[in-house]
Amino acid sequence: MVKEFNILIEKGEDGFLISEVVELPGCHTQAKSHDELIKRTKEAISLYLKCQKKPIEILDKFVGIQKVVV
Using CA atoms, how far apart are residues 27 and 46, in angstroms rounded to an integer? Predict the structure, then answer.
């Protein structure tokens, strides 16, 4: 079954890109390129789901992210 997940992507001080899966606490990874980051993020999600003892309920509560300049 195909599931959709939201990820946040940040650039670390060391230049690596870091992804965090919004719906899966503690599920994150890093890579040097965007393509590699997406590949590693999918792997991290698969491993996270495989290790869960109970099914994960994906709720559509993530609205979005926005940068604000003050």
Answer: 10
Instruction: Give the torsion sign (CA, 25, 29, 47, 2).
Output: positive
Lookup: tokens for 34: 């965007």
Answer yes or no: is 20 within a domain: yes
Contact 21, 5 (CB under 8 A): yes
pTM for the full predicted model: 0.83
* Domain span at 28: 8-51
Phi, psi of 38 (to 5 degrees): -65, -45
| Mean pLDDT of each 10-residue bin along the chain, 70 residues long | 88 96 93 97 95 74 84
How much is the pLDDT for 28? 96
User: Into how many domains does the chain fold?
Assistant: 1
